């Protein structure tokens, strides 16, 4: 049970950053709330202050340009990405990842950035964004910094983000637009379910990348492969990277097996 | 002069009449127990055990008591009441020991939910953790700890159950038919195998909710989401030694129940809290997580089947051993055991049979009634077994089943003789098989297989079930005419989504020859106002209540005819009626309307005669008997509804992933009262069956902690998981004592869905599945590690 928390909805970045700096660890950002509220209800998170960032006026929104690629803002929902014609055209893989998340109702609230910041090993937006070379723009009162998404995760539900920092945007470079590739998610039911394993694989002008979820403490990216590599080599690279566990959703052996099957099938599709 | 406007017989029965509760439910207007709020109402919360088995050393409630806004705090020590349906084994709150994870050990009532939650957090319980008994087969070991060392001193229903003191067995039901040894001696093949099911949760949309008010003078009112108001009242009064007329149970709309709301649950605890809080009403609604372990589940089962088959493919003998995991309390599990025992062989003619069905206590959340009442669980094993036996003897599984089906002249396991009115399992099986083009792939299916690389398989399974109820189960209906000639029907069968209100409306309308718009079935159930019904369970409602409603209509008409005979100066034999009026047959213009008779007829001079027209109908199950405790022989079945499913599944042979392309289900319902409500039951049951087949399961660690007490990891199916095609087929062999020839079909659609699916997967891939649920990983494992067939054939013809 929670002992109650305060709620604020700042309208400017300065106000938001000020609140974060002042409250530190006790403050929690609320985007769609589909992870945060679940964690508060179960007692996993006990914030003193919940800060809704969707009222901040000067945040980036979902836009695409040839020069900057795709920009995803803090209030961009999974459904925004799913239904955006530009995303569907340039990054169909992202739309596919988006569609695999929960249900329509959930996707209306859930944000892409929330999915990434929550940093679940099975976050469904991660494998696709990793393959497409996404970067994360981080901001706070102290200023801005940027890093590759693959360097953002540090452990199960852990990231490089400081308590006073937010993710201001995630960008996907124009260079990976129209990469060929797809996402496979193993679930227990066809309706909404978390991934038992999730594999994305892209071919960008011969450069093959594999993103894998629910197979290690963080989502994984495997780079440095080409579409000329034999399937066994690609599978071996994936095998070397993953560290799946057995849990009540699935056994380690089945996870390993299914990742291999997905990698082989996806590779076949993009050759 | 108008022609006689008599409507044709059965003007509404058989019609797709719209559900009478549609508008209220679709617009959110329907009132449920969770919607109710009373002045001065308090909110209860429960302190739950984090251990499966432990001694309670101390409970410190002082901090909780001192929290402002808290009005009552209770622990088991101060409550000396025991509850139990058939074996009285459960304290209102755990006393000296806890027997399962999630068990209630203390409770509070406070002015708000928030305060109640905080108060519960402030209660400290000191435990001495003990090793739990988790597997029901281990619990049979003579060195196993006893979940209930005092079993021998508990009260129980002696006519039906046989607890074994000094063991973990609250009931053992035996059935003996023919000569089992001779039957096996005659057999050419003997096939022996074990099948298992885990516990699962009902997951009604509306979680359990109740409000109880215990006022001065011991006047108790209970508002609850319960299925069975009168059984709830009876069990409550027995626990508290209160007369029935002191306790009133009210049931508004119920948001799904599926057996989980039969019997009695948190009402006694709320009553004690209300009494302690000076009579203020106390409300509790379970969270989804609490549904999984504070409230009961469906029992797990291990089913060992040994079948002897003769050279001609006929079953010669069957030994059936059922091990039901009741969890910590006997509740309905003992009766699930009994009902499953007498149905254990399925709709087959088995000349020599031996059934031992054990209910076994373990340290897990307890099992209760769940749609199918044991049949979903044991038909999993039985109909998988039939498939595997057919494979061993080299006969097509459909042929093998047909050869062994019950037919007129066969006797059931308890010695009941089947006749041509009992229903037709063969027609059901043939209809389901033909609806899926059993035994071959159509050109489209072949093309689909080639295109997808997946393998298509087809499977069938049969089922039967009779209501599990006391031999003397009875019900009543009251029909009251309003002064405009419309009527209100009062019954105590609750509307829990199954469509009772709609079909009762249709039957009453037809019997009265009224339009359905003039018939209303009251929504709310109230033990102070409604006539008795035993329970809303067992798929017995349509038959028993239907007959009572028909009798009530006849009683109302009889009174109306008597009054009309006076008014019209005729004898009742001279009269007939239509939807509006009673008239003289020979001269229809001499008539009197129902409205004019409804509350007493008034002559032009002001004289009155007659009085309010109220019909009463009763019905009691006819001719049923208790079962002999040593042989199980007797007549337990009000009616047998037979059925069959056919499933077309598509399996990825590499990964074990599969989808259901089609499911076709056929049931011999005697007479379809309403095709829409029947289809609703069929689809709902089939999906629920598919859910338990595909993914649902309680998962525990080795200390008995439930690891998946929510829908995050206890998946149920969603709209996206529907088969591509669903076909529901009605077979109509009239039940001679059923209303309009009908029998029940509420539970049946859920039964045998799982084996039909697994048989289809088996057909596609050879996967020998013996455990539910069938997740893709299980299929993958079964495909890759097939057990050699000869490990479970214990006798085969010499070659
Ligand atoms: C029923 C259900 C089904 C689900 N199914 C799936 C699924 O299939 N696949 C899947 O991947 N996930 C699933 N989820 C998880 C969840 O919906 C997603 O992770 C979602 O994208 C989270 O986004 P949100 O906006 O709701 O995050 P929130 O709950 O608002 O935030 C999540 C976390 O990120 C932080 N945060 C959010 N935005 C920022 C920001 N801009 N800067 C810094 N910190 C931030 C919050 O403080 C919080 O810690 C499911 C959840 C539920 C309840």
Short structural summary:
Chain A has 271 residues and is of the alpha+beta class.
Please tell me about this protein's structure.
- The complex is a heterodimer of chains A (271) and B (799).
- Chain A has 271 residues and is α+β, with helices and mostly antiparallel strands.
- Chain A folds into three domains: 47 residues, Uridine Diphospho-n-acetylenolpyruvylglucosamine Reductase, domain 2, CATH 3.30.43.10; 113 residues, Uridine Diphospho-n-acetylenolpyruvylglucosamine Reductase, domain 3; 91 residues, CO dehydrogenase flavoprotein, C-terminal domain (Enolase-like, domain 1, 2-Layer Sandwich), CATH 3.30.390.
- Helices cover 32% and strands 26% of the residues of chain A.
- Chain A has ten helices and 14 strands.
- In chain A, the strands form four sheets. In chain A, strands 4-5-10-6-7 form a five-stranded antiparallel sheet. A four-stranded antiparallel sheet of chain A has the order 11-12-13-14, with helices on both faces.
- In chain A, helix 5 packs antiparallel against helix 8.
- The model of chain A has no long low-confidence stretch (mean pLDDT 97).
- Chain B has 799 residues and is α+β, with helices and mostly antiparallel strands.
- Chain B folds into four domains: 164 residues, 2-Layer Sandwich (Aldehyde Oxidoreductase, domain 4), CATH 3.30.365; 84 residues, Aldehyde oxidase/xanthine dehydrogenase, a/b hammerhead (Aldehyde Oxidoreductase, domain 3); 78 residues, 2-Layer Sandwich (Aldehyde Oxidoreductase, domain 4); 341 residues, 2-Layer Sandwich (Aldehyde Oxidoreductase, domain 4).
- Helices cover 25% and strands 24% of the residues of chain B.
- Chain B has 18 helices and 32 strands.
- In chain B, the strands form eight sheets. Chain B has an eight-stranded mixed sheet with strand order 3-7-1-14-11-12-13-22, sandwiched between helices. In chain B, strands 9-17-16-15-10-32 form a six-stranded mixed sheet, sandwiched between helices.
- In chain B, strand 23 and strand 24 form a beta hairpin.
- The chains are: A alpha+beta (271), B alpha+beta (799).
- The interface between A and B is medium-sized, with 19 and 26 residues.
- The site of flavin-adenine dinucleotide (FAD) has 30 residues of chain A, from strand 2, helix 2, helix 6, helix 7 and strand 10.
